[in-house]
Amino acid sequence: VGLVRFATQIPDAVADPNTPTDAIVVLTGGSGRLNAGLELLAGKRAPKLFVSGVYRGVDVATLLEVSKRSPGDIDCCIEIGHSAGDTAGNADETAAWMGDHGYHSLRLVTSSYHLARGLLEFRLAMPGVTLVPHPVFTQTVKQDQWWAWPGTASLIVGEFNKYLLVWPRHAAHCLVSGKQKR
């Protein structure tokens, strides 16, 4: 039942495509994420783009080249982080970056199936930051009738299992935070 509920709550559209934020944050690891972040930056949804979890040795110029973009006016507005190796690491790396810049809101760009866990990790790392989810949709992930597509089913089951590992930590944090506020 939990798996079915999780799968049906995976977004199939961007709920809020227009709200401006202090930053756009792209989590590496899925196709289309970087291009979506670059489109949002070009569309002036935020003045800065942070790409978290980039392989060491890759710089902004390389990212733009891989995404088939010319630097133009946007290369000055892109920063990258190399220390994250997983979603919790992305949240920690981004929290430090956000703190260094004094930012209070971000648009989180990640795959639709990864968004629920990403939001949990980011809420844990940055409880006072406003998060605007921005799911990215990959054609190879068949969200409609996901159970009938072995690759998609495996992906969603794996993401659900990872979500289940994060959720208790999030719930415990909320309990502790609630007790401290009283």
Question: What is shown here, in short?
Answer:
By secondary structure, the chain is of the alpha/beta class. It has 6 helices and 5 strands, in the order αβαβαβαβαβα. α4 (87-101) crosses α5 (115-125) and α5 (115-125) packs parallel to α6 (150-181).
Helix-strand blueprint:
Elements: H1 2-8, E1 23-27, H2 33-42, E2 48-52, H3 60-66, E3 78-80, H4 87-101, E4 105-111, H5 115-125, E5 130-136, H6 150-181
Parallel strand pairs: 1-2, 1-4, 2-3, 4-5
Q: Can you count the helices?
A: 6
How much helix, percentage-wise, in residues? Answer: 40-55%
**What are the low-pLDDT stretches, counting only 5+ consecutive residues below 50?**
none
Q: Which band does the percent of strand residues land in?
A: 5-15%
Radius of gyration: 17 Å
- How would you describe the shape? globular
| Overall pLDDT score | 89
User: Which oligomeric state applies?
Assistant: single chain
Distance between the termini: 34 Å
Number of strands: 5
Q: What order do the helices and strands follow?
A: HEHEHEHEHEH
* Largest β-sheet summary: 5 strands, parallel
